[in-house]
Design brief:
Layout: H1 3-21, H2 26-40, H3 55-73, H4 75-83, H5 90-105, H6 110-128, H7 133-146, H8 155-168, H9 178-194, H10 209-213, E1 218-223, H11 235-239, E2 246-253, E3 256-258, E4 271-276
Antiparallel strand pairs: 1-4, 2-3, 2-4
C-alpha cells in the first residue's frame, strides 16, 4: 500500500477507537478526524467541506428537525394517553411501542423516533412494574427495521437512490422500498412481540443494606409558581447550577407530559420531573429557592 493509504487507514482507525471509547462527543470526533485528514494531506483543502453541501446532508438534517419538532410537541405522548390510557399488559405495551417506533422510523430518523417514544416506554414500565429494558431493546430494533420501508427512512436508502439516479438517470421513488421493507418490518414486529422474553432484563436483584439506605439518585417533581424566578428560564438554565448533578426528564403542561429540550422555556404553573444524581445538590440552589 502507499503512504496515503496507510495514513487513511490510520485516521479511520483512530476515529473508530474514539467512537468506541465514547468519552468524546461523536460530532467532535468526526470533525477532528476531518481536520487530521487535512493535516496529513489525504483530503484536499478545496474538498474538505464539500460534503456539507450534499443534498443527503440536507435531507438527513431536515428529518432530524422534524423529529425534534414532533418530540417537542408531545403529540405522540398525548395520543398514547388518549387512546390507550389503561394499557397494562406488558406484551400489549411492547406491541404499541414497537409498532409506533417502526412506523415513525419510516418517515423520520430512527434516533428521532426513539427520542419521541422513550419517555412513554418509561411510563409503561412504571405502570406495569417492570424494567424499562424490556421495551428499549425491541424499540431499537423496531427503529432500525422501520427505516427500511421508505426512501428517506434510513441514510443508505438515500445514498443508493442517488447513485441509481447518477447511473441510470432515475432515482428510486419514496415507496419503491416499501414492499420488501414493510414485509421485513412486519416479520420483525411479530418476532419482537412474541419473543420479547429473550431480551435481557437489566435489574439489580441484590442490594446491600447500606445501598438501600443511602439513596444517591432520585426523581422528584416541582411546580413553577406564578411569581417564581424560574418563569421564562430555559431547561438549560434550570440544570446549570447542578453542574451535571440533575437532569430534567419531562415537563408536564395541561396534564400532558412532554420531552424537554435544552431551550424549552418554563412557564408558570408548569411541573417538571427532575432526576437528581448527586445528593449534595438540592432544589434550594434554583435562583434562591
Amino acid at each position: 500500500m502507499t503512504t496515503q493509504q496507510y495514513l487513511a487507514f490510520a485516521v479511520i482507525g483512530l476515529m473508530m477507537i474514539a467512537f468506541v471509547w465514547g468519552r468524546v462527543r461523536y460530532d467532535i470526533v468526526a470533525m477532528c478526524s476531518l481536520l487530521a485528514a487535512l493535516a496529513v494531506g489525504i483530503v484536499p483543502l478545496e474538498a474538505a467541506f464539500s460534503g456539507f453541501s450534499d443534498e443527503i446532508v440536507i435531507i438527513v438534517g431536515s428529518a432530524l428537525v422534524v423529529s425534534a419538532g414532533v418530540a417537542r410537541s408531545g403529540l405522540m405522548e398525548a395520543a398514547v394517553q388518549r387512546f390507550v390510557p389503561d394499557l397494562s399488559s406488558v406484551r400489549a405495551q411492547l406491541a404499541v411501542l414497537v409498532i409506533i417506533v417502526t412506523v415513525l422510523s419510516a418517515f423520520v430518523k430512527n434516533i428521532g423516533a426513539l427520542a419521541i417514544m422513550i419517555p412513554i416506554a418509561f411510563q409503561f414500565a412504571r405502570r406495569s412494574n417492570v424494567s424499562a429494558s424490556v421495551f428499549l431493546m425491541p424499540m431499537a430494533f423496531g427503529a432500525l427495521i422501520g427505516g427500511l420501508m421508505t426512501q428517506i427512512g434510513t441514510s443508505p436508502n438515500i445514498v443508493v437512490s442517488r447513485v441509481r439516479a447518477e447511473m441510470v438517470g432515475q432515482s428510486f421513488s419514496m415507496f419503491d422500498f416499501t414492499p420488501v421493507g414493510a414485509t421485513l418490518a412486519a416479520a420483525g414486529i411479530i418476532y419482537l412481540v412474541l419473543c420479547y422474553r429473550l431480551v435481557p432484563e437489566r435489574t439489580r436483584e441484590t442490594v446491600s443494606v447500606a445501598e438501600a439506605i443511602e439513596i444517591r439518585n432520585y426523581v422528584s417533581e416541582a411546580a413553577v409558581a406564578k411569581d417564581s424566578a424560574a418563569v421564562g428560564k430555559t431547561v438549560m438554565d434550570l440544570v446549570k447550577p447542578a453542574e451535571g448533578g440533575a437532569k430534567v426528564t419531562s415537563i408536564v403542561r395541561a396534564n400532558h407530559r412532554v420531552t424537554p429540550l435544552p431551550d424549552s422555556v418554563l412557564l408558570k404553573v408548569t411541573c417538571w420531573c427532575l432526576k437528581v444524581t448527586r445528593m449534595r445538590w438540592t432544589p434550594s440552589s434554583w435562583w434562591g429557592g
